Amino acid sequence: MKKFIFITLLAFLMLEASSQSNIRFENRKTDGYFNLTQIGLMMGNQPINENTPNYFDDRSDFHISPSVTMVNGIMFNEERWSAGLGVGFEIFDRSLFPVFFDLRRTFWASDVSPYIALKTGYSISGFKKKPYENFMLNHDPYMVSDIYFKKHGGFMFNPEIGVKIVLSENADLLITAAYRHQRTKSKVTRENRNPREWEYKLNMNRLSFGVGIMFR
């Protein structure tokens, strides 16, 4: 709840700051193709990773991690609405490569305008499984041997608010704040003798802040 209150207050300040703006560039492109590159920092707790003696520990540490995404899409209705497809690279308790649909709404045709956006899709991970001679679980059978450990991605959901500032006829600066929900899972597999698999699902939530450049 505190996260949503903070983001709502930030949105209100953005609306107040941008209410008196006027367009300086008359020949701006208002529909068609755009490219958006964003860089951000995500903040929140994440679980202890497998470099500790017990990977599946209930403890967590506070982390700040990077996010880089790129969206290619189309502007509609005099740039008020836009939609596109995006890809990126992010770090949670593992490296993730999100692939997502991006939908945006810009409120005013002015030098400075608030906007909202929604990114939703799937984050890819788990390209390679790692062998362990011995691996500790936090439940029965506790110690397992000769296993493979593999990290997977999962569903992502990322609502965003921000301010779009006109830089030139072809470029805008975006200042962003967002909430991120990310699902992941991990698998421990014993293949050679007494085959067995243990699967662990995890939901992670982060606040993120960043900047972006939009070319049109």
Give a structural overview:
The protein is mainly beta and 216 residues long. The protein has one domain: Porin, CATH 2.40.160. It is 8% helix and 64% strand. The chain contains one helix and ten strands. Strands 1-2-3-4-5-8-9-10 form an eight-stranded antiparallel barrel. The longest helix has 17 residues. The protein is elongated and about 70 Å long. The two termini are 36 Å apart.
Record the SSE blueprint:
Blueprint: H1 2-18, E1 32-47, E2 60-76, E3 81-91, E4 95-106, E5 112-124, E6 130-136, E7 143-152, E8 154-166, E9 171-190, E10 196-215
Antiparallel strand pairs: 1-2, 1-10, 2-3, 3-4, 4-5, 5-8, 6-7, 7-9, 8-9, 9-10
Briefly summarize what is shown.
With 216 residues, the chain is mostly beta strands. The chain is built from one helix and ten strands.
CATH class: Mainly Beta
What is the straight-line distance between the termini? 36 Å
How confident is the prediction overall: mean pLDDT?
A: 83
Number of separate structural domains: 1
The beta-strand count equals 10
Question: Could you state the oligomeric state of the chains shown?
Answer: single chain
User: What order do the SSEs take from the amino end to the carboxyl end, as H and E?
Assistant: HEEEEEEEEEE
Sum up the overall morphology in one term: elongated
CATH topology: Porin
**What is the overall number of helices?**
1
Low-confidence stretches: 17-21
Strand count, sense and barrel status of the largest sheet are: 8 strands, antiparallel, barrel
Q: Radius of gyration, Cα only, in angstroms?
A: 21 Å
Share in β-strands: over 45%
Helicity, in percent? Answer: under 10%
Strands of the widest sheet, in order across it, are 1-2-3-4-5-8-9-10
CATH structural architecture:
Beta Barrel
Q: What structural class results from the helix and strand content?
A: mainly beta
